[in-house]
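Minutes, project check-in
Item: structure for the 130-residue chain
Input as provided by the requester:
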Amino acid sequence: MLMELKVIFLLKTKAEVFKRRVKWILIADSTKTLSDKIPMNRVTVFNVDGYAICIGKNKNGLFAAKNKCPHEGYSFKGGWCTDDNKFVCPVHRYGFDVLTGRGGGTYVNIYKIEERESGVFVGIEFTSLF
Protein backbone atom coordinates (compact mmCIF):
# COMPACT_ATOMS: atom_id res chain seq x y z
CA MET A 1 0.00 0.00 0.00
CA LEU A 2 2.75 2.46 0.94
CA MET A 3 4.64 1.64 -2.25
CA GLU A 4 1.50 2.32 -4.32
CA LEU A 5 1.11 5.76 -2.72
CA LYS A 6 4.72 6.61 -3.48
CA VAL A 7 4.29 5.61 -7.11
CA ILE A 8 1.10 7.66 -7.47
CA PHE A 9 2.76 10.68 -5.85
CA LEU A 10 5.78 10.40 -8.15
CA LEU A 11 3.61 10.16 -11.25
CA LYS A 12 1.83 13.42 -10.51
CA THR A 13 3.41 16.65 -11.66
CA LYS A 14 4.27 19.42 -9.26
CA ALA A 15 1.27 21.41 -10.57
CA GLU A 16 -1.07 18.53 -9.74
CA VAL A 17 0.23 18.19 -6.17
CA PHE A 18 0.75 21.82 -5.19
CA LYS A 19 -1.93 24.44 -5.70
CA ARG A 20 -1.35 28.17 -6.24
CA ARG A 21 -3.50 30.27 -3.95
CA VAL A 22 -3.92 34.00 -3.32
CA LYS A 23 -4.33 35.57 0.10
CA TRP A 24 -6.10 38.95 -0.22
CA ILE A 25 -5.02 41.50 2.40
CA LEU A 26 -6.95 44.72 3.04
CA ILE A 27 -4.55 47.62 2.67
CA ALA A 28 -6.83 50.70 2.52
CA ASP A 29 -10.47 51.81 2.53
CA SER A 30 -10.28 53.18 -1.02
CA THR A 31 -7.86 53.79 -3.87
CA LYS A 32 -7.94 57.51 -3.11
CA THR A 33 -7.01 56.93 0.54
CA LEU A 34 -4.13 54.67 -0.51
CA SER A 35 -2.98 57.02 -3.26
CA ASP A 36 -3.00 59.99 -0.85
CA LYS A 37 -0.56 58.13 1.45
CA ILE A 38 2.03 57.63 -1.30
CA PRO A 39 3.86 60.57 -2.92
CA MET A 40 4.17 60.53 -6.72
CA ASN A 41 7.14 58.46 -7.97
CA ARG A 42 7.85 57.13 -4.48
CA VAL A 43 7.30 53.88 -2.62
CA THR A 44 5.82 53.40 0.85
CA VAL A 45 6.09 50.30 3.01
CA PHE A 46 3.01 48.87 4.73
CA ASN A 47 3.21 46.14 7.38
CA VAL A 48 -0.09 44.25 7.34
CA ASP A 49 -0.91 40.75 8.67
CA GLY A 50 2.78 39.93 9.06
CA TYR A 51 3.64 40.94 5.48
CA ALA A 52 5.92 43.84 4.56
CA ILE A 53 4.44 45.22 1.34
CA CYS A 54 6.03 47.92 -0.80
CA ILE A 55 3.46 50.03 -2.66
CA GLY A 56 4.53 52.58 -5.23
CA LYS A 57 2.85 55.19 -7.37
CA ASN A 58 3.76 56.66 -10.73
CA LYS A 59 1.83 58.32 -13.57
CA ASN A 60 0.52 54.87 -14.60
CA GLY A 61 -1.02 54.09 -11.21
CA LEU A 62 -0.29 51.98 -8.14
CA PHE A 63 1.73 48.78 -7.88
CA ALA A 64 2.74 46.44 -5.06
CA ALA A 65 5.72 44.17 -4.38
CA LYS A 66 7.40 42.25 -1.61
CA ASN A 67 9.43 44.70 0.47
CA LYS A 68 12.71 42.88 0.05
CA CYS A 69 15.23 43.59 -2.67
CA PRO A 70 16.37 40.21 -4.01
CA HIS A 71 19.90 41.50 -4.51
CA GLU A 72 20.87 41.70 -0.82
CA GLY A 73 17.57 41.70 1.05
CA TYR A 74 17.30 45.42 1.79
CA SER A 75 13.96 47.18 2.19
CA PHE A 76 12.61 49.29 -0.65
CA LYS A 77 11.76 52.01 1.91
CA GLY A 78 13.19 55.27 0.63
CA GLY A 79 13.18 53.95 -2.94
CA TRP A 80 11.41 55.49 -5.87
CA CYS A 81 9.63 54.58 -9.08
CA THR A 82 10.01 55.86 -12.59
CA ASP A 83 7.48 56.73 -15.26
CA ASP A 84 8.76 53.85 -17.40
CA ASN A 85 7.37 51.38 -14.80
CA LYS A 86 10.47 50.58 -12.78
CA PHE A 87 10.85 50.78 -9.06
CA VAL A 88 14.31 51.33 -7.67
CA CYS A 89 16.04 49.95 -4.58
CA PRO A 90 17.49 52.89 -2.63
CA VAL A 91 20.64 50.98 -1.59
CA HIS A 92 22.19 49.78 -4.86
CA ARG A 93 19.80 51.47 -7.31
CA TYR A 94 18.70 48.28 -9.01
CA GLY A 95 15.50 48.86 -11.00
CA PHE A 96 12.68 46.29 -11.15
CA ASP A 97 9.78 46.19 -13.62
CA VAL A 98 6.48 46.82 -11.80
CA LEU A 99 4.63 44.30 -14.00
CA THR A 100 7.08 41.37 -14.13
CA GLY A 101 9.38 42.03 -11.16
CA ARG A 102 12.44 41.47 -13.35
CA GLY A 103 15.57 43.58 -13.01
CA GLY A 104 19.19 43.51 -11.91
CA GLY A 105 19.56 39.93 -13.20
CA THR A 106 16.94 38.69 -10.73
CA TYR A 107 13.32 39.39 -9.80
CA VAL A 108 11.11 40.55 -6.94
CA ASN A 109 7.62 39.22 -6.17
CA ILE A 110 4.94 41.48 -7.62
CA TYR A 111 1.50 41.51 -5.99
CA LYS A 112 -1.85 42.31 -7.58
CA ILE A 113 -3.85 45.28 -6.32
CA GLU A 114 -7.63 44.99 -6.48
CA GLU A 115 -10.28 47.53 -5.54
CA ARG A 116 -13.54 46.17 -4.17
CA GLU A 117 -16.54 47.72 -2.45
CA SER A 118 -15.01 46.86 0.93
CA GLY A 119 -11.62 48.43 0.18
CA VAL A 120 -8.31 48.00 -1.64
CA PHE A 121 -6.65 44.59 -1.36
CA VAL A 122 -3.21 43.25 -2.18
CA GLY A 123 -3.08 39.65 -3.42
CA ILE A 124 -0.14 37.58 -2.19
CA GLU A 125 0.34 34.28 -4.02
CA PHE A 126 1.50 31.18 -2.19
CA THR A 127 1.69 27.43 -2.77
CA SER A 128 -0.36 24.96 -0.78
CA LEU A 129 -0.98 21.23 -0.65
CA PHE A 130 -4.67 21.85 0.04
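Outcome recorded: Residues 89 and 120 are 25 Å apart (CA to CA).
No further action items on this chain.
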